[in-house]
Write a structure and sequence with these properties.
This protein has helices at residues 35-58, 69-80, 85-95, 102-118, 141-151, 164-176, 273-278, 282-290, 314-322, and strands at 6-8, 65-67, 123-134, 154-158, 192-205, 216-221, 227-244, 248-254, 261-267, 293-303, 305-312, 343-356, 360-373, 386-391, 398-404. With 411 residues, the protein is an alpha+beta fold. It has two domains: 6-204 and 305-373, 2-Layer Sandwich (Antithrombin, Chain I, domain 2); 212-302, Roll (Alpha-1-antitrypsin, domain 1). Strand 12 (343-356) and strand 13 form a beta hairpin. Helix 1 (35-58) packs across helix 9 (314-322) and helix 4 packs parallel to helix 5 (141-151). The termini are far apart.
Length: 411
């Protein structure tokens, strides 16, 4: 059984506003980005559809899915500033960043963030970044300064051995998402040395709000046409941007002054959700967005919905080609974070929240990249339970064997 709604927060400005009486309303404000920033947007959208497709294929049928490609991209972009060699190249491949220098990437993200935050005063759009690292772990100044400068990252040194550190990081996440996502870290493992976190919060009021009096109970069906359950269906009538093709028909619902909008894509009869997702890519998306046209006196029915989603992205990103970054065997190269440690990404955790009702949409996303320390070629650190054996060299006779789980238990 498959439910209908698969939501993607695509890191790009969608179409303009529709028109509706009574009275003229402010229109969308143009955003002028340089060519390098536009190239970055194209890269982000290409990555968005690829990772959404991978996640969709990995999830069970019938489960609602929602990701924020922008949140994932920003968390990985901060991490990218610490990568070098083949690890850096692999991240460039997956994120489609070839052709842009590291400086181009950082400056373009800075320009994009500033534009998204300020374009529509009628929409709340907040983006926050942070870096948290172990207090006994040395971090290259250049790495921290770049992320402070271009991503406005808050940098905090913490005693990761103190259980309170988990609460401190999660409180930051909760604050930045207006308590829509309250936890991203369950625990800090002994080898974790850094967390790079992005948080996005969005609250948009529909440019043309639905009337609560027009919301009624209505049936909802699975994609095979079987009755699933009765749901709360909103309704509005007006002039809206619309398009249709062999895969779907779609409506655009603008927020605020029209810079932000929701595109709702309804598969045509005989077209499955999976088939539609498989045909979603950067080129098709651009063609589809150009095909919208105004439909006057159009009736729109949209369910109210609210859900959360979370996903560990390590496997997904590895399948896309970033596996080297997760290697614990010394293959990963994050020497620009610390050249003397064997560092790798041990986790990329992603959480999202969305609520859609008559007034508008509230959404949040958090992405956390965990950097951990592996076994260095020139270091042996017995900082967790171990076995010891006392033996004779030539006979290999064993005199003593033991397990140490607490070195100070008998002191």
């Amino acid at each position: 059984m498959k439910t209908l709604f698969y939501i993607v927060l695509v890191p790009a400005l969608l179409l303009g506003s529709c028109q509706k009486t009574p009275g003229p309303l402010p229109g969308p404000k143009p955003i002028n980005l340089d060519q390098k920033s536009l190239s970055l947007l194209e890269a982000d959208n290409a990555f968005a559809f690829e990772i959404f497709k991978e996640i969709s294929q990995s999830e069970e049928d019938g489960k609602n899915i929602m990701i924020s490609p922008l949140s994932i991209s920003l968390a990985l972009a901060m991490t990218y500033n610490g990568a070098d060699g083949e690890t850096k190249e692999a991240m460039e491949d997956v994120l489609h960043l070839h052709g842009l220098s590291t400086e181009d990437i950082n400056k373009s993200y800075q320009s994009l963030i500033n534009a998204l935050l300020s374009v529509d005063p009628k929409v709340i759009m907040e983006i926050a970044n942070s870096i948290w690292y172990r207090d006994d772990f040395s971090v290259e100044d250049d790495f921290l300064n770049i992320n402070k400068t271009y991503y406005d990252a808050e940098v905090t040194q913490l005693n990761f051995s103190d259980p309170a550190s988990v609460d401190i990081i999660n409180q930051w996440v909760s604050d930045k998402t207006h308590e829509k996502i309250t936890k991203i870290i369950e625990q800090i493992n002994r080898d974790d040395v850094m967390f790079l976190i992005n948080a996005i919060y969005f609250k948009g009021t529909w440019k043309y709000e639905f009337d609560k009096n027009d919301t009624h109970e209505a049936p909802f069906y699975d994609e095979n046409g079987n009755f699933l359950r009765d749901i709360q269906m909103m309704m509005i009538e007006g002039d809206f941007n619309y398009t249709s093709n062999v895969f779907f028909h779609a409506i655009e619902l603008p927020y605020g002054q029209g810079n932000y909008s929701m595109i709702v894509m309804l598969p045509q009869s005989g077209v499955s959700i999976d088939s539609l997702i498989n045909n979603m890519n950067k080129n098709n998306w651009e063609t589809w967005m150009e095909s919208f046209y105004n439909r006057p006196d159009f009736e729109v029915f949209l369910p109210k919905f609210k859900f959360e989603f979370e996903k560990e992205l390590k496997k997904v990103l590895s399948q896309l080609g970033m596996g080297i970054a997760f290697g614990q065997n010394g293959n990963a190269d994050f020497s620009k974070i610390n050249p003397n440690e064997d560092l790798f990404i041990s986790s990329v955790k992603h959480k999202t929240f969305i609520e859609v009702n008559e007034e508008g949409t509230e959404a949040a996303a958090v992405t956390s990249v965990t950097i951990s320390r592996g076994v260095s070629a020139n270091e042996f650190r017995a900082n967790h339970p171990f076995i010891f054996v006392i033996k004779e060299k030539f006979t290999n006779a064993i005199m003593f064997m033991g397990r140490v789980t607490d070195p100070e238990a008998g002191l």
